[in-house]
Structures are given as C-alpha cells and as structure tokens.
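Input sequence (515 aa), recorded before submission:
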Amino acid sequence: MAASDDRIDRGILVLSSVVVLGAIMSILDTTIVNVALDTLGRDFRTSLATIQWVTTGYLLALSIVIPLTGWAMCRFGAKRVWMVSVALFLLGSILCGAAWSVDALIGFRVLQGFGGGMIMPVGQAILARAAGPQRMGRVMSIVGVPMLLGPVLGPVIGGLLVEYTTWRWIFFVNVPIGALALVLAWRLLPRQEVDRDEKLDVRGLVLLSPGLALLVYGLSAAGSGGGFGGTRTVVGLALGAGLVAAFVLHARRRGEAALLDVGLFRRRAFTGAAATSFLFGVAIFGVMILLPLYYQVVRGEGALGAGLLMAPQGVGAAMAMPLAGRLTDRIGAGWVVPVGLTVAMLGTAAYTQVGPNTSYGLLAASLWVRGLGLGATMMPAMAAAYASLQEREIPRATTSINIIQRVGGSVGTALLAVVLQREIVAAAGSRTHGLGNLGAVSPAVRTQLAAPLADGFARTFWLALFLTAVAYVPALLLPRHRRGRAAGRSVAVRPAPGATPVAEEPPEHVEAGRR
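Predicted structure, token format:
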C-alpha cells in the first residue's frame, strides 16, 4: 500500500496537466506583454508613462484578488473558482485583443488580472490536496514548470508575435489555450465539499487587498524610474505597509476566521518555506529584468534575440525540477534547497564578471547552471510549506504563499531596476537618462558606452548574488528527513474509518519542529 500511495499515478498527472495549462497561460501573458509595450505606445500614440499601466494595472489587479482565494475556495469549491478565474482571464484576453484605445486596453487588462490572480494559487491547492504530503515535492515540481519557464519563454513568444503578426495576437493567443483548459477542467478536476456558511472577512479584505496593491504600486513606481525616494514610491509603500500591518493585528485577533491565517507562521517549516520563497523570489524576478537588458543594452540584441539567449535557464530548470521533486519527497527540502541555492549562485557568479564581449557560450552555460539551481530551490521550498499543513489549512496557506511570492517578485524587480538605473546613469552620464531612454541610444554611442555599461550590469549582478545568498538563512528552517522515518510514517499511518484525515501530517511536522 505504501508504494501505491507514494507513486505519482495517472490521476495526479492528469490533474497536474490541467492546472499547468491554465497557469502557464496567465504567467506567460505577463512577460509576453512586456515585449510589446514599445509597439503599443506607438500604435496608440501615447507616452511610456501611460502605456506602462498596461502592465501595472494587471499587477495591481492580481494583488487585489489573490487575498480572496482562500475564502473563495472554501465557500464555492476549488474547481468552480478555478474555472471562473480562467473564464474571466479568457474574457479579458479577448477584450484586450479587441481594444480600440489605450484606456480600454488598460481597463481590460485589469479585468484580465482579476481572473489571472487566482489561477495559480487555486491550482496549487487542488494538487496539494490530491497529492498528500508524501508526494508534495514531485507534484510541486510539475506546478513549477510555468512559474520558472514563463519569464524565459514569454519574451521569445512575445517577440515572435510582435515581429510577425499584430500586437493583438499577444492576447488572442490565450483563447485556444484557455478554452481547452476550461473543457478539461470541467471534465477532469474533482469536485470538493464547500462550506456554505464560510464568512468573508470583510474588514481583513478592506485592509489587505488595498495594502498589497499600494505596496506593488510603490515598488513599480520605484522600478520604473522614480527610485525609492520618489513621492509615489514613498506614499505607496508607507500606506501599503500601514494597511498590511493593521491587517496582521486584525488577523491575530480573528484567528482562523481571518482572510489569512497568520498563525501558520508559528510553524518552523512553513515560516522557513515562506521566507525562502520570498527571498528567492526577490533574486529570481530581479535578475529577470537584468538578463534581457544586458543583452539588449550592452550587446545590441533585439527582443527576440534576448529572449532566445535566456532559453538555457529554462532548459536547466526543466531538467532539475523532476529530480529535485523526488529528492524532496525522499530526504526533505532542508537538504535539497541549500544545494539548489549553491548551484544558482554559481550560475549567477559568471554574470558578475560580464563585459562588452563576454562569450555567449560561457553566458549560456552559466545560465543553464543557474536554471538548475532555480529548479532545485523554489518548488522544493513550496513543497515543504504544504507538507506541514492539514487539509483544511491548504486554501488560506496557498493564498499566503502566493502573496509572499508576488511581493517578493515586486521587491526584486524594483530594487535591481533602481540599482541598475543608477549604475547606467553613472556610466553613461548625460548621453542617456536611465532605463527609459536606452532604446534611443545610437549604435555609435552604444559602442562607446559598452564597457562602462557592462561594468554597471556586473555590479548590479553582485547585488543579485548577495540576495540569493541571504536565502540560506531561512532555508536552514526547512524540514529534513530520511526515507522510512518521517516520510515513511506519513505513508504508513492510515486514519480509522470516520476519523478526521489529518493523521498523516503530525509525524513529519513534529520531526521538523524538534529540529
């Protein structure tokens, strides 16, 4: 029986394929649109300050809706919420592709974001419930495919669509994928019991959703050129932090009835996984802005060329995730994640030495190594968080993890964008004014500035390397076990008929707490 319960059976693979199909659609869309911003600005004859709201509005909508995920799953059921989210994202995609003005496009992107925000966390919760703690590492490695490949494949697909079709196809491409995901979900996703009496924590929602939106807005303003001293950044971060702090106080009083159960953070394994995910999210998404800009700004590559040059990272991540998942289930994330961090740092280290003529072969190999490290870090950390949960805790815990990742990604993007902009201004002086005008630099001036610009990128990559190293600290809190001890007992112990199905979890949780 243990062997049967322990393997990834066909049912889990089917559920995973449905969830990944919806998730990769929403994650790819975020990065595909970034490639087309310049084209959108020209077609709608509007400024960069206006057109960037196509991205910012989407991110703000994600931040607003994610806190509702846990309550919505309990109240309406995960399958229904997932299908409504995909349908809303699909409707937003169709309307974005048909947009007749920049204002309409921004509004439809917000609608798309309201749908996209719940797709990933609800999908993770469905798989976490189906897999159980003994298979969590391998299942999370499947879910991690869109999360790690999306930022790599997005620029490539976006570049191809913009270059060979019209910008409208960056939205219309979602239609067949979303339609297929809905059909498969209707037929294959399991129905789950719902709690019709589940009450929405209205006060918590009023505090948390605007608080997160303001934090993301402030960080976006910092990363888009205002710096951390800009008025919009300071006001956004201050108000956002205040609202989130007020929510934490409210949630501590309300307990499990709150929009998020902050009591989960009293557990060593969950806190370690959450902190590791946040810090590694800072490093991952921060570097995602550095890599294509280095290839475009210093080496003169186009959007499509830069996207293709980033492909080795996705290849490395895809190769590492299945093995990392199996090892996480066998020996625990506490052994796997530090190794993954070390490998990711080795791959990133080469970019701290970049110059104007660094070998593409060396950079590709380093990026592949970095991808191996990413694949062995992010999803094992998430698996550790889920493995310490009881089934009833999964919806709100999933919401917490996704919020942490979203904020971490925003922090990383803003922080490294601000540092890079200052390095570029220091290197280029009056000939360019930071990230906003880099595309206007002539090839002759680019050649003159290549060496100092490369030095600026190298110094920024040192910060990315440091941020990755900081993740070692919470990684020490992740659980470690040996096959046949904690992991083995979680498979062998079966609840008696009619008993609450939580008997599988305590042994591993207790072992983690003792360490």
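Checked by second reader. The chain has a mean pLDDT of 77.
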